[in-house]
Specification:
489 residues; mainly alpha; two-stranded antiparallel ribbon; 65% helix
């Protein structure tokens, strides 16, 4: 299926060539996202300092977005307008502080600078709506690759962190790393992807998901909260036909085995082991107090730092401008515990500290508009009984919730490992809403075995012998948009 029609001429050939190059860019971005998810900073530091892989992909993407012809459509959406204002405010702060702090001002400003990825991916999706279907197909492959690999990466890094070599050009980034909170965000998105039925729920996938979650969540409170709450959101937003029994049974089975066996995996040099007891301590720490000095100490350290930021912005002299990008907040605020730490373990508080109350208001407004826009699109899909669209919006919102919760307890938005992932999901949401409004039939293709109701666990598929046209879209009785095919040229 091809939703972009071009005449058979030299200009048409050139247009198709441009589309093909942009398609390859989207594929490269997908591989980069896999690299960030599996290797963390080990992949983020590929490149020649200070230009790394994320900056290179960003610059190339801006070229394709600028030449796609759809950039203005994204910029003029309510979400796009607020994002432009927020990026302008960030650029002003970077410019003002660059003379004093140099490259550090740009590096800190990339927390919002990565927001350009939202424009890139949304623009490319709108320019060629079929890419949205291709993204879903690619994410199915990502799901398998991530579940098959991440447990080994995580355990190897936790057990042998001191022995993992650094990249040749860096004295702080190992060749591979693993952060529990970041992994739990990905597992939350994958769990929702499985739950809503956008991939066949094979027993091996359910087993791998449950095993990975059980291994990682015991050592990360923020990731644990993000995982469960995001899945809850996905459960609420799932299509009514989606069944979740096998997924729930798999998790219950592993929890039961854990309680009976009580496995303990010691981690060299770490203050927390991988065990069911540690999981219970994490839960108690979230709900109240524990006797663990490690858990209570980190919680008090965060709360004290956040209170300090609130005092000098909302109640203090940095109300309007914040401290700006480039300032080492950990050192300047008096909470430096690691030479590499620059920002508080809360991406929202980082924006308040660096851009003041106006920046924080724009940030909150941006997130609320994006969320409201997707929920409105989800409600429209539910009214039309478009189950695949409901499923897609459920996954995007679930990812968004998991990322925000993880960013509340860790440095997540500030680096490319989380920042590029977040803004890409953000941009996919913008593009998906536009495509749903203008090309609602793009997510159904009778040639795709993963798109039939039967393969998704929704019941028997309707006959597919009918002839379809792209406009007006013809609806089947069960509400899914019919597939469309371009006229032959």
């Amino acid at each position: 299926m091809n939703l972009i029609y071009t005449p058979v001429s030299s200009s048409g050939i050139a247009a198709r060539s441009a589309y093909g190059a942009a398609d390859r860019y989207v594929q490269v971005l997908g591989w980069a996202l896999l690299g960030y998810a599996l290797l963390s900073r080990g992949f983020a530091y590929w490149g020649v300092p200070p230009i790394f892989v994320g900056e290179i992909i960003l610059l190339v993407g801006l070229f394709y977005a600028a030449t796609s012809g759809s950039l203005l459509k994204v910029a003029l959406t309510p979400t796009g307008i607020v994002l432009v204002l927020l990026l302008a405010l960030a650029a002003s702060s970077i410019t003002r502080n660059y003379g004093m702090h140099g490259v550090d001002a740009i590096r800190d400003g990339m927390q919002l600078g990565y927001g350009l990825f939202a424009f890139i991916i949304a623009t490319l999706l709108i320019a060629r709506p079929e890419r949205l279907k291709n993204l879903i197909a690619s994410y199915r492959k990502y799901t398998v690759a991530f579940l098959a690999s991440i447990w080994a990466v995580y355990l190897a890094f936790r057990a042998f962190e001191s022995s993992v070599p650094f990249l040749p050009w860096s004295d702080s980034a190992h060749i591979f790393e693993a952060k529990g909170g970041d992994i739990m965000v990905q597992l939350a998105g994958i769990a929702t992807f499985l739950m809503v039925g956008l991939i066949r729920r094979r027993p091996l996938l359910l087993f791998a998901l449950a095993a990975n979650a059980a291994i990682v969540m015991v050592s990360n409170r923020g990731g644990m909260i993000a995982f469960f709450l995001a899945i809850l959101v996905g459960y609420v937003l799932r299509p009514p036909e989606a069944r979740v029994g096998k997924l729930a049974y798999a998790f219950l089975f592993f929890v039961l085995i854990g309680l009976i066996v009580g496995p303990i995996i010691p981690v060299n040099g770490a203050s927390r082991d991988i065990s069911v007891e540690q999981l219970w301590l994490n839960i108690k720490s979230v709900l109240g107090r524990t006797e663990s000095d490690s858990l209570e100490g980190t919680k008090k350290w965060r709360m004290d730092w956040w209170e300090t930021i609130f005092d000098y912005t909302v109640r203090g002299e940095y109300f309007w401008t914040g401290k700006g990008f480039g300032v080492n907040l950990a050192k300047d605020d008096g909470f430096l515990v690691d030479p590499s730490l620059r920002s508080p373990h809360n991406g929202h508080m980082t924006i308040l500290a660096r851009l003041g109350v106006p920046g924080a208001i724009l940030w909150i407004l941006l997130q609320l508009i994006w969320f409201a826009t997707l929920i409105r699109a989800w409600l429209r899909a539910r009214e039309r009984k478009e189950s695949r669209w409901m499923a897609l919006f459920a996954v995007l919102v679930s990812y968004w919730v998991a990322m925000h919760l993880n960013a509340t307890f860790d440095v997540y938005f500030e680096g490319p490992m989380g920042g590029i992932w977040f803004w890409t999901v953000f941009g996919v949401g913008i593009g998906a809403v536009y495509i749903h409004r203008h090309h609602p039939d793009v997510l159904f293709d009778s040639d795709d075995p993963n798109s039939t109701r039967e393969s998704l666990g929704y019941g028997a598929s309707a006959p597919t012998t009918e002839t379809f046209t792209i406009w007006p879209p013809r609806r089947r009785n069960w509400g899914w948009p019919a597939p469309s095919h371009p006229p032959s040229t």
